[in-house]
Structure prediction request, 324 residues.
Amino acid sequence: MKAFKASILFLTVGLAFNACVKDDRDDCPEGQDYNLSLYFEYYNNGGEDLFAENIEAIDLLIFDENLFLYQQLSLDEVIDHPERRRELYVEPGTYYIISWANNFGGRSRTGSGSRNLDDNYVYLNYSPLSSDRLYYAPDKRGLASEQADDLDFYKIEVAPVGITYDTVSFMSAHRTINVYLKGFTEIEDQQRRNPDVYVRNLTRYYDFFLHRSDENSVEYSKAAQEITIEEDDGRHRLYGFARFYVPHFDNESPVNLDIARILSSGVEENYRIDMNDILEELEMEVWDGDEAVIDILIEAAGDGTYVVAKVPDWTVVDVRPGFN
Prediction:
């Protein structure tokens, strides 16, 4: 699996591209309608081909040898292409390629307004509910930090004659957090407002090298929804549930999880857990591109305390429509 760079951000500026695509041959050399053929792929950590199940939209940015934006393309047609290829013509030379998939929130917006590779960002706070299920190319999994930022990893040389072939390999740029609430009376009797679940202190943006912002200012929140769980004894019980897609964070991070509820007495109560403590409890480590799904069970005990535990292998009997 060869990973390489393809840049995509959303600089909707009116660029006059010195290139031709397969559908428009006016600027191409006579007898040649393309000289660059790109293949798109996404494999999970287990080596399974999950491109069709996960990739819904593709944006590609091509930067020239001076790291200046040369072409910006929306390539959604690749998803249904039988060979997952896109063929285009560029002037022979050195290029750097980065791609994002599923960047719905920021697709039509500009980042910094710059056309330079070093100066563009994907902001992650367009929705108060969740980030997009982002994917990024090139695939940096398994690279040491000094390798991951090496421009050679992003580089492609388009030959002066013939066709240059290369692969755009995606990796996950998001994580999934599933929060289960057990023993919350407002969920079980459905007479009061369900608790609100917050994920706080997430990074504000990715740059085009997939570095995270130092500004941890993004939060997502959802009201817990009821789901029916079949417990180990065979009984069915109502749990609260909230799912979030979030950008990457480190094993030591400021991210925390808050549960806000109103008790039957009318008193507001807030329970906070640090993500560091959650990962320690789950005996879990995270890294960029890891596709991590973090399942968190928070149980309200009768004495006013809470217990955090790993979610058992329950049977989810019923999930209401609209979860994502």
